[in-house]
Every structure is written in C-alpha cells, then in structure tokens.
C-alpha cells in the first residue's frame, strides 16, 4: 500500500489543470475516477484521479490564487512511465522543471522527472528501482 492516501490541489483554472493532469497522469496509469459537483459539496467542484475507483489526487476549482508551493511525487515501478509522464505533461501545457534522469544525490537508482503544473505546483514521477535489463 502506498503511504500517499490522497492529496488536494486548489486550481485557479480547473479546466486547464484537468487537461494537464489527464495527460500527465494517464502516463502513470491514473485517471479520473470520481467527480463531485459544487452542488453536492455546497462549495466547489472536485475531480479525483486514481486507480481502481479510489481517488488519491483531488483537484478543486475556484482558488483565488494558487501559490505553487506544493510538491507532489508519484512513485512508479519502472523508468519508462517517468519518461512518458514528462512528455505527456509538456504536451499538455506543463513546464519542464527537471528532465527525466538519474538523481544520484538522493540515491543511485533515483530516476525522476519534474514538471510545473498550470498553477506552478512541482509535480514529479519517480522510480526507485534499477533500470530494467
């Protein structure tokens, strides 16, 4: 089981952020699994991404401004999804914050890529395993 249960991000422009996350997270096997309307919550619209019906990343609309101070990392079992995440996120409007590659200052097999989402949050995909043979 992952130590990350769920996390929420407030988005200045929810539709723009949804386009980014749909593309970038699809490369990691995550998709929209739940949506909750503002009418249902009495406040704001929420969209949950995850696997097997379990949302783990929630995007919320209506933030007056997002400070971009959040760092969120997604762990994967192989390096190829890290590369795919980076490509898909860039194509969907994300900004490069560190191309896919080894980060041996963390540990010898730390292979990660970093993107800034539309609100400036630092989003990472990381593989902690050695390269596949």
N- to C-terminal distance: 26 Å
Q: What's the helical proportion of residues?
A: 10-25%
Number of strands: 8
Backbone CA Rg:
15 Å
Question: Could you list the spans in which at least 5 consecutive residues all have pLDDT below 50?
Answer: none
Strand order of the largest sheet: 1-4-3-2
Main β sheet profile: 4 strands, mixed
CATH superfamily: 2,3-Dihydroxybiphenyl 1,2-Dioxygenase, domain 1
Question: What is the CATH class name?
Answer: Alpha Beta
Which features characterize this protein?
single chain; 133 residues; alpha/beta; 2,3-Dihydroxybiphenyl 1,2-Dioxygenase, domain 1; 3 helices; globular
Brief rundown of the structure:
The chain is α/β, with parallel strands linked by helices and 133 residues long. Helices cover 22% and strands 37% of the residues. The protein has a single domain (7-127), classed as Roll (2,3-Dihydroxybiphenyl 1,2-Dioxygenase, domain 1).
Characterise this structure.
The chain has helices at residues 14-26, 38-41, 80-91; strands spanning 7-10, 31-36, 46-51, 54-60, 71-76, 95-102, 111-116, 122-127. Strands 1-4-3-2 form a four-stranded mixed beta sheet. The chain has one domain: 2,3-Dihydroxybiphenyl 1,2-Dioxygenase, domain 1 (Roll), CATH 3.10.180. Helix content is 22%, strand content 37%. By secondary structure, the protein is an alpha/beta fold. The mean pLDDT is 89. It starts with 6 loop residues before the first strand and ends in a 6-residue tail after the last strand.
């Amino acid at each position: 089981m992952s130590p990350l249960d769920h996390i929420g991000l407030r988005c200045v422009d929810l539709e723009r952020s949804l386009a980014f996350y749909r593309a970038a997270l699809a490369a990691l096997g995550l998709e929209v699994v739940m949506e909750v309307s503002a009418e249902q919550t009495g406040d704001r619209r929420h969209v949950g991404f995850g696997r097997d019906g379990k949302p783990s990343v929630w995007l919320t609309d209506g933030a007056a401004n997002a400070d971009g101070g959040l760092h969120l990392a997604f762990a994967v079992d192989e390096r190829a999804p890290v590369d795919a995440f980076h490509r898909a996120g860039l194509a969907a409007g994300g900004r490069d914050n560190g191309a896919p590659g080894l980060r041996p200052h963390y540990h010898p097999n730390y292979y990660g890529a970093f993107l800034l989402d539309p609100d400036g949050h630092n989003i990472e995909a990381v593989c902690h395993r050695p390269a596949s043979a």
